[in-house]
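Summary for the funding panel

The consortium committed to producing paired sequence-structure records for every protein in the target list. Below we show the first two records in order, beginning with the earlier of the two.
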Amino acid sequence: GADLSKADLSKAHLYNAKRGANLSSANLSEADLSKAKLIKAKLSEANLSNAKLSKVRLDEADLSGANLKDANLRGADLRDALNLTIEQLSEVKTLYKSKSNHELMKQVKEKYPHLLEKPK
């Protein structure tokens, strides 16, 4: 995968991007990563605020410290994402039709059920 650590990719269109990139500490605010397969991607400390992450796959992607504020995770597959916390998920725009590990999804349903509703 490409090493794009610390790159400024704000507002970039990376629709359908593929696996393994190093995007740690990258600025991906407002980027379109819809349908990307970010398998084993390094997204630690990345700024994904307001990013379009609908139908993204994050198998074994490291999300430690990633900023997901107002990110659109509609239909995202988060089941095997690494270091993803309920605190990060609490700030997203939507998790409608997304998949996550059982424990995280249970916490979302209890604390932030509005994130699972169809966006208006």
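The next record, for a separate protein in the list, is shown here:
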Amino acid sequence: RENPLARPTSRGGNHPLWVLGHIAVVEGMIPHAVFGEANPVQHWWPLFGTGSQPTDDPGAYPPFEEVLATYRDLRKENVGRLEEVGEAGLEQPPKVIPPGFEDRMKTIGRTYHLIALHQMFHLGQVADARRAAGKGPFV
């Protein structure tokens, strides 16, 4: 929160605000991929979607607290939807598989697993940004 634009390395990298927005837009893709519904944060795709580049201009982004609240709301909704799918539904195919993800998103279970791995990957970048900003580790 105190330094959301801290870069993880001296050569740049994804700052925490971009990472948070990125995992939010990907979290918003779950209803689209799994259930065929619209991504409620599709309008953020130019800022945070695949291929976007982080900027050091804080005015280019929504406020940190808004992005965080949106991510938390989407995550809570998606965990609830996963519970509705249940164990038996995990082997069902998602409704919309993005091009290039056909092998990794063959089932709803694999789709949710991929999202979890994706978040872990990007949280490593946040951990590095924290260290670059002079903060200690998360744990």
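Regarding this second record: Helices lie at 16-35, 45-48, 64-89, 108-132. The first helix runs from residue 16 to 35.
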